[in-house]
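Changelog entry

Holo records now carry the ligand SMILES as an explicit input line rather than a separate metadata file. Below, a converted record for pyridoxal-5'-phosphate, shown in the new format.
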Amino acid sequence: MNLETIYERMGISREVHAYGQKIEKELRARFAAIDETAEYNQLKVLGAMQKCRVSDVHFAGTSGYGYNDLGRETLEAVYAEAFHAQSALVRPQITCGTHALAVALAANLRPGDELLAISGRPYDTLEEVIGIRPSSGSLQEYGVTYRQVDLLPDDRFDLDGIRAAMNEHTKMVHIQRSKGYQTRRTLSVTDIGEAIAFVKSVNPGVICMVDNCYGEFVERIEPTDVGADLCVGSLIKNPGGGLAPTGGYIVGREAYVENCAYRLTSPGLGREVGATMGLMQSFYQGFFLAPTVTAGALKGAVFAANLYERLGFDVLPDGRESRHDIIQAITFGTPEGVIAFCRGIQAAAPVDSFVEPEPWAMPGYDSDVIMAAGAFVQGSSIELSADGPVKPPYAVYFQGGLTWEHAKFGILMSLQKLMEAGLAKLP
Ligand SMILES: *Cc1c(COP(=O)(O)O)cnc(C)c1O
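Structure line, unchanged by the conversion:
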């Protein structure tokens, strides 16, 4: 059986497959560059594991208090080494990205301090952490004030605005690398470094924290290479490599990471406790695979941008732009387009491929939302996944794919569903 035939048996028509092949062929140079970044990052992670003398004894778990957990301590040393940072906290007790960010903020801010966001409005879930939307236990309730400087219309940092907003209470600066669910450019690590250098030139004592979600291993450098004091993310996104079943990480300067440990567990206990319960092998192995898994997801995003751009849909980033995270937005302009796309992604999944996603009123959203996720790990968005609020401009945000081959199949299936619904036509 040849490739077209097996695609056809899996539900992809010959025309859709041929169109995909043509796009893929045009992307050869782009994909080669992505592979080279993966190669670089693979060596970075491998080097860190060798330097820290990772051994199979580190995969044994602890229970109870988790004292003297060698696997945990060594994994944290590996993360610190790979991020070129002084220290790291990498824990299954960090439940998700939002939690990691909440810990980093609450651990390093005290009553009377001010948090300054310099890349505009932070990710939705942080609004309640900070207290932008009133919420029980927010930083605002603890007397931490908040200010925000938006990016300029061309998505550059507003340096004059930042200088004007900084005052004697400014303790911490928040920078978000990925656009999240906004329609702005994703910030490159180099851009972030320039902003950090500017903040430090105004006040060297301000702690610069970067929300690194979806950005890990997309470039050869990370925010900690350009002066970030803290860099934070989720293990069910890029750095978990699809294998970590839960968890989050915080890397950065020793004193600030130490504060995070006291906040995460308890004053007095800090990083000395926290059982790992047999999860360490998946954390190590996931981190080892993360550079190539991220490359697969990145190829999927670039492929989708080019495939849909050619059909006349708005895509962000566009087909040629350089990439700093793995998220791709595609605007369909109709609710039917969003729904058909998500149904295609779901139908292509290894898990729950037989269910049809439906738009749904989700807590925290002001419109119905449709989500496609057929993941091994609940909510994992390094696995191929998509979601779209069913409201104008009717855009979907999609990301992930543990392998390029699966990302490609999912994208072709989304196009197949759009064509079957009469919502897209091949050029
Ligand atoms: C996903 C994400 C978060 C929150 O992570 P969760 O694991 O969903 O809590 C925060 N910031 C950005 C930019 C993200 O993409």
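Spot-checked after migration. DSSP finds twelve helices and 13 strands in the chain. Residues 96-98, 123, 125, 176, 178, 180, 211, 213-214, 234 surround pyridoxal-5'-phosphate (CB under 6 Å).
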